[in-house]
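Deliverable D4.2, example record:
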Amino acid sequence: MSRLSPGTLLLGVVAVMFGLLAAYVVRKNMTREEPAPVVETPPPPVETYVVPKAAANLMAGRTLTMGDVVIYRYTQEQVDAQPLPSGYMVSAEQIIGRTLKQELADKSVFTPDMFYPEGTGPGIVQDLEPGQRAFTVRVEYDEAVEGFARPGTKVDVLFRVDADVENELPQTTVTLLQEVKVLSFDASPLSVNPIADPRVARRRQTATVTLAVQPQDVIKLQVAENHGTFALALVSPDGNAVSYDGAPRTLSELMDRRPPLRTMMRVYRGASISELEFRENADGRDQLFRASQSQDAVDAAADVAVAS
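Output generated by the structure prediction step:
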């Protein structure tokens, strides 16, 4: 057996070392772990506060709807810069349907003390001026401007008294009051939402209207009640007063027809008494217009005859 030379032995050692190195590199590449994916952490959410505010200038007595409320969202920095009132209302559900006790400016924050208790509203007493009285009249719905005489509007009150046949007084319409404020209007559901039924005769519906009047006007309305019918005329909000002076009050005045001159005559024939009415004709002469027998006079004559 020949002996290995030193050069051959060195070459073998180098070859073994390269083999081991190559095996290490292969093993390292095969066992190399993939780097973990980089996950971006989102910033923490910004805390906001819900703040309902008035969408416009709102009048006292208004019952609020969705259109009256605007929802804002404030950050903590905004709240610190514009402090909110203590106990402010945080949702529209707390506000819608409630009635304001006071006027509110645009973008005002709502608080519970601004509203009447839930389910209530202002009383009519708060709408009376010093010295005024509240008086309620019953008006046919058609005569109440078809229901447009709502609270806050002003109306003229007309009164039509029925004809008095016994005293020969014609049907007359007068203006009782002018520019009185309507405090409340209450109509029956059938009046507000009429359902036409051709099989049923239409019935006239009535409404009750409460007015703000002076004490002497209360007496006028009380005297007129049950002696005729009231009607309302809606007044323009411009405040220009008008006068009804000179307006016709009866049909004869409206048609410019004067009552004819009449002459009455009673004819007694025994127990019979006849009443004759003469009117002036086109020629200016008296002409018999009507003849009737007065039953009251006949009865009176009979009583006199029996007594005698």
